[in-house]
Each structure stands twice: as C-alpha cells, then as structure tokens.
Design brief:
The chain is α/β, with parallel strands linked by helices and 346 residues long. It has a single domain, classed as TIM Barrel (Alpha-Beta Barrel), CATH 3.20.20.100. It contains 10 helices and 10 strands. An 8-stranded parallel beta sheet has the order 3-4-5-6-7-8-9-10. It has a two-stranded antiparallel sheet with strand order 1-2. Helix 1 packs parallel to helix 2. It is globular and about 50 Å long. The termini are far apart. The relative contact order is 0.15. The model has no long low-confidence stretch (mean pLDDT 95). The structure holds NADP nicotinamide-adenine-dinucleotide phosphate. NADP nicotinamide-adenine-dinucleotide phosphate (NAP) binds next to helix 8 and helix 9.
Length: 346
C-alpha cells in the first residue's frame, strides 16, 4: 500500500489527454506537449511530488519528467504503479529519466538506467537523457562555491563513450529514445556528426526571459524536439541557484498584462506561450489548482499573434540555472559551461 495515496480516478474537471497537443519525434513517436516536472527544489518532499504525479495523471497529464538525482524516483514508481493499476496503459504514458553526472563512465550507464527503471517500476523509459554534458561528483544541495576537484569540461570523446552506452540501452529495449540536456550548438553538432542514434530531444532552459532562439532553432532544424525546463522561471528554485541579476518572467509587464486579460496567473501565460512556440514545457507544481491550470491552457484558445510577438520581444537572455557547481579547475566563470563564443570551452 502506498504511503501517500492508494487509488486513482479520472477527475471530472480534468483535461482529456487526447486533446492535449503532441510533438512528433524523428522516430514517429509522439510526446505530449506538456509534462510535469518532478524536481522539488529542496522545498517539496518526495511524497508531495509523488502525490502530485498521481493527481496530475488524474487531470490529464501523461508525461512525467524524472531524474535519478531528484532522489524521488522510488516514490514516483509507486505513483506510476497506482496510475497503471487505475487503468492507464503504459503505452499512454511518457516517462523521461536522466543519467546523473557521476554515472558517465562506460560501465556505469547501463546500471544507472536499470536503477531508475527499478525505482520507477518500469520495463522501459520513453526517453533517457544525459542530464549534463560534464562528468563530476556533486553532493546534493552543494553550495554555489562548491567545486569538485575532479570535474572536467566537455571532452567529446568521453561524451561519445557515454553516448554509445546510451545507444546500447536503446538496442537492449530498455529505452525508446535518448537525448541530451544542457547542451550548446557546438557540442550538439559534434554529437550529431558522431552518433549512431541521434538525440530525439534536447532538454534546455526555456522561458520568456530566456528564449535561446539560436539553440531552439538549431534543434527544430535538426529534428530534435526542444523540451523546456524552468518554463515559469523556476520561482521556487533553491537559493544556490539565485543571483542578484536574475529576472522573473512572471513579473514582466507583458506577461502580467496578457495574464490579466485572460484571467489567469502569469505562470499560465508562460506555459501557454511555450506550447504554442513549439517547445515541450515541463512545469513543476505540487498544487492541484496550478498543475490543472497549466495543462488546461494547452487546449484553450491560443495566444494572439500579437501576444506571441510581444513575448518574443521580452527575452532578456537571463539564464537562471547557470551550473556553476560543475565548473572544473581553471574555468573562469559559469559562462564557460555554455560556449558563448561558439567554441567549446576546455
Ligand atoms: N535538465 C535539467 O538540468 C533541469 C534543470 C531544472 C529543471 N528541470 C526540470 O524542469 C522542471 C521544471 O523546472 P522548475 O521546477 O525549476 O521550474 P518551473 O516549472 O519554471 O517553476 C515551478 C514553480 O512555479 C510555480 N507554479 C507552477 N505552476 C503555477 C501556476 N499555474 N500558477 C502559479 N505558480 C505556478 C510553483 O511555485 P510555488 O512552489 O511557489 O507554488 C512551482 O514550484 C523540474 O521540476 C525538472 O523536472 C530540468
């Protein structure tokens, strides 16, 4: 019996999952155009998140974005079992998980994936991502100044060793698609050149104040579906991920004005914009009213062309998840992780 909930029913006020838009991957498979994030930002417990997974499925979510490092896959596994026992078929769910930075070693990838599968109580994942392209050890909750002396920059040959194991997972039938996360155009170009199985998705930070237009376009042009994390600008992110320069999309006058016109929270405008632009947002929430309004907005009247233009105009190039804890010895600043000059920093 579950520790947080024992039954699953379809909610009367939910959204019909068949109406939720989907994006086609290069394999022909379709991913629901919105997913529920499951990173608790040190603020929400695994139990609260696992309960939200069941609640979200009952209001129409079929896509859940998980990761080993979130430390809650064993609880989400209980939720998925409840959902499937409640009548939702496995093939109607889309479950993503991610390989953590300390499991890039050739012999570590397959066991790490098997552990996520065991925790999630699944036979296969729909998508498995390399969470970050940098191998390192990073204790949970490490402060911004923390540095692992063994951290390394992106070394393409090493990444491809990891990637070949990701490809093995597809060949073994444990994973349907593989993908990247926190990548840049120069890194992705090399992966596309050398991969036997190309990435189906790239997970990247995307919100109205950080639209990454070049990387977004690169993904679309290469038939890689962009999955957008922090779609609301991660207002509950941990202190270690905050700097004084950060801006908040949900406080932007353009977003607030559209939200007032539509009678919704500004967060909902961010989600609506994301789906309409063509990325797959994975907003997090444990609050029913929030996750319900986030999925409902994917099936209501679209934003106007003018709204879309106005939101395009408020990009501030404001990266929130800078990744500074992954810097290696000799790196100058967090910007080195993101190849701002188009050259891979080493
Ligand atoms: N690949 C990666 O490296 C990476 C990095 C970061 C995140 N992710 C994934 O992306 C997911 C989403 O990112 P995130 O959780 O950082 O940020 P987010 O989805 O942008 O923001 C989540 C927060 O927004 C608020 N919110 C959500 N819906 C709302 C609504 N309808 N109305 C009002 N407020 C609303 C909630 O705040 P309150 O808590 O105040 O209610 C919630 O905690 C994560 O959970 C994780 O799965 C991946």
């Amino acid at each position: 019996m579950s520790r947080f909930s024992s039954s699953f029913t379809i909610a009367d006020d939910g959204v019909d999952p068949k109406q939720v838009p989907r994006r086609k991957l290069y394999t022909g498979a379709e991913i629901p155009a919105i997913g529920l994030g499951t990173f608790g930002s040190d603020k929400y417990t695994g139990e609260e998140i696992a309960a939200a997974v069941v609640g979200a499925a009952s209001v129409g979510y079929r896509h859940f974005d998980c990761a080993a490092v979130y430390g809650n896959e064993h609880l989400i596994g209980e939720s998925l079992e409840i959902i499937m026992k409640g009548g939702i078929k496995r093939e109607d769910l889309w479950i993503t998980s991610k390989l953590w930075n300390d499991k890039h070693g050739e012999k570590d990838v397959i066991p790490a994936c098997k552990k996520s599968l065991k925790d999630l109580r699944l036979d296969y994942l729909d998508l498995y991502l390399v969470h970050w392209p940098f191998p390192n050890h990073h204790p949970p909750g490490a402060p911004p100044g923390y540095r692992d002396p063994n951290s390394r920059p992106y070394i393409h040959e090493e990444y491809m060793t990891t990637w070949q194991q990701m490809e093995r997972l597809v060949e073994m039938g444990l994973v349907r698609h593989i993908g990247t996360s926190n990548m840049t155009i120069p890194k992705l170009k090399l992966v596309l050149r050398d991969a036997k199985i190309k990435p189906a998705c790239n997970q990247m930070e995307l919100h109205p104040h950080f639209q990454q237009p070049e990387l977004f376009r690169f993904c679309i042009d290469n038939d890689i579906v962009p999955v957008g994390f922090c779609p609301i600008g991660s207002p509950s992110r941990p202190e270690r991920d905050r700097t004084p320069e950060d801006t908040a999309a949900i406080e932007d006058p353009v977003i607030v004005r559209i939200a007032e016109r539509l009678g919704v929270h500004p967060a909902v405008v961010c989600v609506k914009w994301a789906v309409q632009r063509g990325q797959v947002p994975i907003p997090f929430s444990v609050r029913r009213a929030q996750y319900l309004s986030n999925i409902r907005c994917t099936i209501t009247e679209p934003l106007t062309e003018q709204d879309m233009k106005d939101i395009e105009g408020i990009d501030r190039n404001c990266r929130l998840i800078k990744g500074q804890v992954f810097l290696w010895e000799g790196a100058k600043s967090w910007e080195d992780l993101w190849d701002p000059d188009g050259v891979i920093a080493s």
